[in-house]
Amino acid sequence: MLSPKSAELVEATLPAVGAAIGEISRLFYDRLFAEHPILLRIMFNRGNQANGTQAQALAGSIAVFATGLLAGQQPEAMLRRIAHKHVSIGVTSGQYAVVHEHLLGAVAEVLDVTPDIAAAWSEVYWLMADTLISLERFLPRGQQEYRVIARFQETDEVATFVVRPVSGPVPPSKPGQYVSVHLPLPDGARQIRQYSLSGRTDDALQFSVKRDGEVSNRLHDFAPVGSTLKLSQPCGDVTLEPGDGPVLLASAGIGCTPMISMLAELAATDSPRQVVAVHGDRDQLSHPFRAELAQLVAKLKDARAHVFYERPIGEWPAERTGLVDLGGVEIPANTTAYLCGPVPFLRAVRAQLLAAGVTDIHYEVFGPDVVSAG
């Protein structure tokens, strides 16, 4: 909890900080990379820095955390998500002090705050940082070298990589988790990207990659069978929870990768749960794992699939043409929902689920989490 004096100052200045936090976060990254340019080359996603989504997520998460503190609660789901992402890219506890220096410096520069106000926001930061450090302490760390033992072209844009550790066993993973691929680039930088596991066996993992950006394109073009890749331990807090209640798996585009992993787990365990699988895509040819979706649903005792195409090829039901619409989908009571896809899809489907009375909703977003960060 915040100290009484800090709570009073944070509450008084939260509107001003909130209004300026986008500018603060952008200045923070400018300051950070000016003093530590290596971080942009070996840790931070250059694409997310260029399009501003990382700054947006940082700004929003701090504002959400401060608001939660004032209300006497912490945004646990957001913090777990950040902790898993930090561990997957190799953030260390010592780096929080570096972030503190430049973040508070940015706050002071933008708002010209008093020392007391700066100290109050410093308290907010360290409460958030200490919570994250505690969470990260219990998550598996480190990278492991894998060899690509097979590749499959799912669509023109999506390839699946099957990888086996060069030495040692395959680490444990849960359906819905991801791995970070640490990839050297021609300019000498090392960039890190997360890809959801789309399956696994006893001795191999598989992840699927859509062509989209410098790392994904390079994997498509320069990671043939026989090449080696450095991967993190499997991470991610959005995983299929055990139980016997109904499950809804909703995805769009390449967001089908964690969903197909969850569906495969349900089929492999001969689950009796009610399962509703929903997917949206451009058309039949752009839909990864289209055949697997139908096969896995057919294996389950009580499962239904609803597929929506924006521009279907050939004849297709009119009620499933266009964007995903759950209005015509029967959703059982007490459903647990798992979502993955672009941010507009996540927001739209979440709103539809809430309107239908579904509140147990978990989602995975590829990139900075601008959803929970507002």
From TrEMBL:
Family from the record: In the C-terminal section; belongs to the flavoprotein pyridine nucleotide cytochrome reductase family.
Domain FAD-binding FR-type: 141-241
Record keyword Iron-sulfur present: no
Superkingdom of source: Bacteria
Pfam family, one: Globin
Signal peptide from the UniProt entry: none
Class of the enzyme per the UniProt entry, highest EC level: oxidoreductase
Annotated organism of origin: Lentzea sokolovensis
Catalytic activity: 2 nitric oxide + NADPH + 2 O2 = 2 nitrate + NADP(+) + H(+); 2 nitric oxide + NADH + 2 O2 = 2 nitrate + NAD(+) + H(+)
Keyword Transferase: no
Record-given protein name: nitric oxide dioxygenase
SUPFAM superfamilies: Ferredoxin reductase-like, C-terminal NADP-linked domain, Globin-like, Riboflavin synthase domain-like
Domain Globin: 1-137
EC number, as in UniProt: 1.14.12.17
Protein keywords: Heme, Iron, Metal-binding, NAD, Oxygen transport, Transport
InterPro entries: FAD-bd_FR_type, FNR_nucleotide-bd, Globin, Globin-like_sf, Globin/Proto, OxRdtase_FAD/NAD-bd, Riboflavin_synthase-like_b-brl
